[in-house]
Amino acid sequence: MIPYFRYTSLPLEPLHIQVWGFFVALGMFIALLAGYRRAGRRGLDRSAYLDMAAWMIMAALVGGRLAYAFFYDPRTFLDDPWELLRLWHGGMSVYGGFFGAAAAAALFAGVRRLPFFTYAEVFAFMLPLGLAIGRIGCFLIHDHPGVLSNSWLAVDYPGGARLDHGLLLVLLDLAIFLSFVVVDRLRRTRQTSFLALFMLIYGFVRFGLDFLRAWDLPGSDARYLGLTPAQFFSLALAVAGLALLLRKTSATAAASAAPAAKTL
Question: What are residue 10's DSSP bridge partners?
């Protein structure tokens, strides 16, 4: 069992750096830096990659905040709409960030006439790495307690040992990234859509993991029809990922069959 600890800030005088924000920013920086190198190796315009990334980050922050306000804590934001701007109070939805970033990337690609899915594959490959690093911040501040448990992965919270959803998501994101690295090393990337795989795997696994979130503590996630907002988003993401994967598979099969047909 993991001992309970809680680190909310790093006291680097004269500053006090918020742990969660630090790891989120660190995850973004490392993922974007690695993506920058990957984009160059694939012959993409690195300048366009950075410009697209900047728009995606801004849209992710807006989307993450709005989704949290609407689906997780609407009463607080209806009572005080200015709370939307107080980011230091916390409250972000990763799915709101996903959809905001995707919308910004699609719009940017359309305006600049760039191949959206080609760039999206680079971002999708590095996304789980950035998420894993960012979720370390969630684990260190323990803002996503799970259900009571005696598992060796449980944290000895005051009042009873519980799973920690932040830790579970670190492990999920890290597992996805490592699996991407293995597939990439096998040099089968032309037949693989990392974007589709991320959507499919993250969506389905995250849907299941949210059943392990605490429901009996003050401030527990809102539930609609017994499901968290993230579970509804997870199902939508997984279904979209499956559709994209089937489309990619069909296109690859058709491309492979065309040369064979010409030789008959």
Answer: 17
Dihedral in degrees, nearest 10, Cα atoms 204, 197, 176, 109:
-110
- Report how many helices (DSSP H) and strands (DSSP E) the chain contains, helices first: 8, 4
> For the chain, what are the domain ranges?
32-81+88-253
Report CA torsion sign: 252, 257, 258, 260: positive
Cα dihedral across residues 24, 17, 58, 224: positive or negative: positive
**β pairing state of 162-164 and 15-18:** unpaired
Per-position b or e across 122-154, b if 16+ CB within 10 A of its CB:
bbbbbbbbbbbbbbbbbbbbbbbbbbebeeeeb
pLDDT in tens, 163-207: 999 999 999 999 999 999 999 888 655 667 899 999 999 999 999
Q: How far apart (Å, rounded) are the C-alpha atoms in residues 177 and 131?
A: 10
Count, residues in the chain: 264
pTM of the model: 0.88
Residue 116 is encoded by which pair of tokens?
């959206």
